[in-house]
Design brief:
alpha+beta, single chain, 498 residues, Tetrahydropterin Synthase, Chain A, 9 helices, four-stranded antiparallel β-sheet
């Protein structure tokens, strides 16, 4: 019985464990990076149409789950769908559309957060986790880029104050919903408008002016004048919203303001001139200055800056053109003839000048030769004088040198004699001092004699009787005996000099 109970309990435990494992395996979900989990609740009451399911309701949950592991999504209560994240590339924006919510009224096309339709907010570059049941990003459009030298004029497309916004966008990158705001690039600074006369070949094979090209107006003599004109103009950034509001794009400004006003001003100022007056340089320049000033005044009224109006070319009537060409040819021929005459005169003057140069060269050579001879003679004479003066100075220097050498010889001889005399005087003075030191000449002579004897000389006194040397010599003198008996000393050298 005990064994049966244990077996039943073990089976129950094993069954419970298998059930738990089965529920865990079925409820386990893993979400990779770059993906999300869209969760649909399967139990509860039905959620309202076009809305997310709240807790306890059947339907799609508003909350989606990102990357990770989840153990609470069992298949009995939930169904799970893996959806990839929406990637918006750099330089683009995504238009977000609501699939659920209230319907839009007829007078609007941008939806709010609780309404169906395209939202005002946009998805900027990056990765977006979107609940595809309630929203979608199907449309990618380029972001708004304002280039340097331009400003962006904004036009609000919906709302009570829709229309051109006074604030402009400076150069840069903007994530603007194009469904909400239209942005027009408008150039700032100066630009040019060109009005050139163009020609075409008619059905009769003749060349004629193309209609609508250039600036055309009648003159005082009834002739027609055609001009090539360049207008340099520009807009201030703060004026661009009003210009766009009143006239539209830059092309419209050119067509609605620049061209018609230029035609009107040229007609008013040019109708008082004749063809001959107009083609003259001074008159045409005055005409250009007046047109420029009139266009500047107009620009101030319209909020534009007109820098200058340049008349680049003019095209008078054909008959006037032929007359002008004939006159210009005649003037050119006359100028050419005058130039040729001046050239011939200059050639004759050149030949005369060449001859004068030849004569002048001969005269110059003669004068140069004489001048060279004179200067050469002066140079030789000056050289002889300088040489003579040099010889004289050399002789004088040699004489002075000989005198100096003789004086040196004389000084050297006198110096030698003085040295000998001084030496002798010193020796005599020394001898005198020695004599006085020994007590007299005899003692000095005896001392000198004794100093000349050999150092190893020994003297013995022996009596040999009367009549011998030693019996006759008087050796009783104490000083002599003392000198003879003392050892030989070194001779005394007397000092010389002063």
């Amino acid at each position: 019985m005990k064994t049966i109970v244990i077996s039943v309990c073990g089976g129950i435990v094993l069954l419970v464990l298998c059930g738990v494992f089965a529920l865990w395996a079925l409820g386990y979900k893993y979400c990779n990076y770059g993906e999300s989990l869209l969760i649909t609740q399967k139990t509860g009451t039905l959620a309202a149409p076009d809305s997310y399911a709240k807790e306890g309701q059947q339907g799609v949950s508003e909350q989606i789950r990102g990357p990770g592991r989840y153990f609470d999504l069992d298949p009995y209560h939930y169904s799970v769908e893996v959806i990839p994240d929406k990637i918006i590339k750099p330089g683009f924006i995504g238009l977000v559309k609501n699939n659920i919510g209230k319907d839009l009224p007829s007078d609007r096309f941008l939806a709010g957060a609780e309404e169906k339709g395209t939202q005002k907010i946009v998805a900027t570059p990056g990765a977006w986790r979107i609940n595809t049941f309630g929203q979608q990003i199907d449309t990618e459009v380029p972001a708004t880029v304002i280039k340097p030298g331009y400003v962006g004029v904004q036009t609000l497309r919906e709302g009570k104050v829709k229309g051109v916004i006074d604030r402009v966008l400076q150069a840069g990158y903007y994530n603007i919903n194009p469904m909400e705001i239209r942005v027009d690039e408008v150039g700032i600074g100066y630009d040019t408008s060109e009005f050139h006369v163009e020609t075409e070949i008619g059905s009769d094979g003749k060349e004629r002016v193309k209609e609508g090209t250039g600036v055309s107006f009648p003159l005082a003599d009834g002739k027609q004048m055609l001009l090539d004109i360049t207008v340099v103009w520009g807009l201030n950034p703060e004026d661009t919203p009003r210009i766009v509001r009143d006239y539209g794009t830059e092309k419209m400004v050119e067509d609605k303001i620049i061209k018609p006003q230029l035609l009107s001003i040229c007609k008013n100022l040019g109708s008082n001139l004749t063809t001959q007056q107009f083609i003259q340089g001074d008159t045409r320049e005055q005409f250009q200055d007046k047109v420029t000033q009139a266009m500047k005044d107009l620009g101030q009224q319209k909020g534009m800056r007109i820098l200058i109006v340049l008349v680049r070319g003019f095209h008078p009537s054909e008959d006037i053109k032929a007359t002008i060409q004939a006159r210009m040819i005649a003037e050119q021929e006359r100028e050419t003839l005058m130039i040729e005459q001046a050239r011939d005169t200059m050639a004759a003057n050149l030949e005369a000048a060449k001859k004068m140069v030849d004569v002048a060269i001969i005269d110059f050579d003669s004068e140069t030769t004489a001048l060279v001879a004179t200067e050469q003679e002066k140079g030789f004479k000056k050289a002889a004088e300088i040489k003579e003066e040099g010889n004289r100075k050399v002789a004088e220097l040699e004489r002075k040198t000989a005198e100096i050498l003789a004086q040196i010889t004389r000084i050297k001889g006198q110096a030698g004699a003085d040295v000998i005399e001084a030496t002798k005087k010193a020796e005599a003075s020394g001898t005198q001092l020695m004599v006085e030191a020994y007590g007299g000449p005899e003692a000095y002579n005896l001392a000198t004699f004794a100093e000349g004897l050999p150092s190893d000389l020994k003297i013995e006194y022996r009596y040999a009787g009367e009549g011998t040397l030693w019996t006759d010599v008087d050796l009783k003198d104490v000083a002599a005996r003392k000198i003879l008996t003392q050892p030989k000393r070194k001779p005394v050298v007397p000092k010389t000099g002063g």
